[in-house]
Design goal:
Layout (H helix, E strand, L loop, with lengths): L1 E3 L10 E12 L4 E13 L4 E14 L6 E16 L10 E4 L3 E3 L1 H11 L35 H10 L8
Parallel strand pairs: 5-6
Antiparallel strand pairs: 1-7, 2-3, 3-4, 4-5
The protein binds zinc ion (2 copies).
Pfam family, one: YceD
Protein name: DUF177 domain-containing protein
Organism: Anaerosporomusa subterranea
Length: 168
C-alpha cells in the first residue's frame, strides 16, 4: 500500500488524499475481505501525519461454537511518518520512510490486530458447544445437558461454574 509523497513532503501544511481497495487480507488470526482503506496525509512540517479508516468485513471464528462468522469492521487509524532512518528508541511509535513513497501496509495490519476482539463471539446469545458431546447447541439440542447431577455434587458444581448468571 504505497502512497507517492513526492509532492506533499515538500509542501508544508498540504493535505493529500489516498484510497485503497483490498479484496483480501489476513493478519494471521483473522481474514478480512473487501477492505476499503481511505484517508488523508498532512504535512505538518516535521512529519507526515497519516489518518484514515478501514472499512470491510472480518471473518472471525466464534470462541463458543467455533463456527466462522462475518462481521463488519470500521477501524480508524493514525500514524506518523518521518523521512530518514530510525534515530533512537525514543521515537519507537514513529514510522520511517526513504525516498518518495510511504507504505501504510504495516500500519493497517497493526490497526486491524489491535481492534480484533479478545474473545470473538458470533452473537451474544450463542449457546456454544456441549462440553460433553461437542454438538453445536445453536443447531441442535442434545440430551447431555438434561442429565441429573448427584445432589451431593450439585453444590460443588455450582461453585465451580465459571460464569454464574445470578452473580453480577
Ligand atoms: Zn457462536
Ligand atoms: Zn451434549
Amino acid at each position: 500500500m504505497n502512497i507517492d509523497v513526492f509532492r506533499i513532503k515538500k509542501d508544508v501544511s498540504a493535505v493529500q488524499m489516498y484510497h485503497f481497495s483490498v479484496s483480501s487480507l489476513s493478519t494471521g488470526t483473522v481474514t478480512y475481505a473487501d477492505l476499503d482503506i481511505s484517508g488523508k496525509i498532512l504535512n505538518d512540517g516535521a512529519i507526515l501525519e497519516v489518518t484514515g479508516q478501514i472499512l470491510g468485513e472480518a471473518r472471525f471464528v466464534c470462541g463458543r461454537c467455533l463456527e466462522p462468522y462475518l462481521a463488519k469492521v470500521e477501524i480508524p487509524f493514525q500514524a506518523n511518518f518521518k523521512e530518514g532512518l530510525p534515530e533512537s528508541d525514543q521515537e519507537a511509535d514513529m514510522s520511517w520512510f526513504q525516498g518518495d513513497s510511504i507504505d501504510i501496509a504495516e500500519t493497517v495490519r497493526e490497526s486491524l490486530i489491535l481492534a480484533e476482539p479478545f474473545k470473538q463471539v458470533c452473537r451474544q446469545e450463542c449457546r456454544g458447544l456441549c462440553p460433553i458431546c461437542g454438538k453445536n447447541l445453536n443447531m441442535e439440542i442434545c440430551t447431555c445437558t438434561t442429565e441429573t447431577i448427584n445432589p451431593k455434587f450439585a453444590v460443588l458444581q455450582k461453585l465451580l461454574e465459571p460464569k454464574n448468571p445470578t452473580q453480577s
